[in-house]
Amino acid sequence: MIHPLPDIMLEPLVRAGLLEDLGRAGDLTTDAVIADADTHVRAVLAARQDGVIAGLDMARLSFALMDPRIKFTPHLADGSTVTAGTPLATVEGPARGILSGERVGLNFLSHLSGIASATARFVELVRPYRACITCTRKTMPGLRAIQKYAVRAGGGNNHRFGLDDAILIKDNHLAFAGGVRAAVERARAAAGHLVRIELEVDTLEQLREGLDVGGVDVFLLDNMPPDLLRKAVRLIDGRAISEASGGITPETVTAVAQTGVDLISLGWLTHTVRVMDIGLDYSS
Q1: For residue 157, which of 11, 14, 92, 134 is within the disulfide window of CB 3.0 to 4.6 Å?
Q2: Is 222 part of the annotated catalytic residue set?
Q3: Could you say which of 170, 234, 239, 274 is catalytic?
Q4: Which of 15, 42, 103, 121 is catalytic?
Q5: Whether 148 is catalytic
Q6: Which of 102, 222, 243, 262 is catalytic?
């Protein structure tokens, strides 16, 4: 069971989406076509393909902010696996509010469910192995909290949320600092006692140097093929967490997991994943 995010975190995003959609004059189509403002309808949110659901609270808020009289009744929870045709929630209330809030609600729900579904696919592919699937900071601006929430809904783990909750020394840091030893020693001197240090390495030579310096909690093994990853894991030998990253696909993730790495990070889970097809259908 995934713990939902509080409404105080979600509402500003939904409100911004609705304001963008309503523009300067409101919903011209709905106001014209639904002549009676008191017209009440019942509709069902339903999955149109198999997947894992995330973002039901975003959909609920999209209707509630349009009209608090709208009743949103979920039939399952985020993190649930569904098949095409599964009803996700029932929406009842004034037709105008439902029609005006529909697209924003579906945009969030479909996007987050797409992330959860893709994550769940990778989690299943590596289930026999020790590796955990994790996301990265490659998120859309303003949507990081909910995109990372969707990864959790799909059974994945979260990488750092920002620049302020861990130290991750990447290739450009090494280049500007003058190498592995200088960068790691400076990081160690600056890090608080609760801050972990991760070092990105491209070669076994860099990995050996990082191990020799000491104080590195996680090694990011970047763009290494499986045979090199296996050697890197043996070198680390449990002294730190190993993370594989770079160009990993559903076709290659199993081979990566078989190397014994602890984490497999995938940026595209949040920045280019396909939405899940979800619709709102009128129910008599």
Answers
A1: 134
A2: yes
A3: 170
A4: 103
A5: no
A6: 222
The active-site residue out of 138, 186, 188, 208 is 138
CATH superfamily entry for domain 125-271: Aldolase class I (3.20.20.70)
User: How is the chain split into domains, by residue range?
Assistant: 7-123+273-282, 125-271
Q: Is 71 a catalytic residue?
A: no
> Can you give the pLDDT of all 284 residues of the chain as single tens digits?
789 999 999 999 999 999 999 999 999 999 999 999 999 999 999 999 999 999 999 999 999 999 999 999 999 999 999 999 999 999 999 999 999 999 999 999 999 999 999 999 999 999 999 999 999 999 999 999 999 999 999 999 999 999 999 999 999 999 999 999 999 999 999 999 999 999 999 999 999 999 999 999 999 999 999 999 999 999 999 999 999 999 999 999 999 999 999 999 999 999 999 999 999 999 86
Which of 78, 200, 243, 262 is an active site residue? Answer: 200
Close Cβ partners of 198 (under 8 Å, ≥ 6 residues apart): 166, 167, 168, 169, 216, 217, 218, 219, 220, 243
Please indicate, yes or no, whether the overall pTM of this predicted structure exceeds 0.85: yes
Residues 6+ apart with CB under 8 A from 10: 57, 58, 61, 146
Residue 188 among the catalytic residues? no
What topology is assigned to 7-123+273-282 in CATH?
Aldehyde Oxidoreductase; domain 3 (3.90.1170)
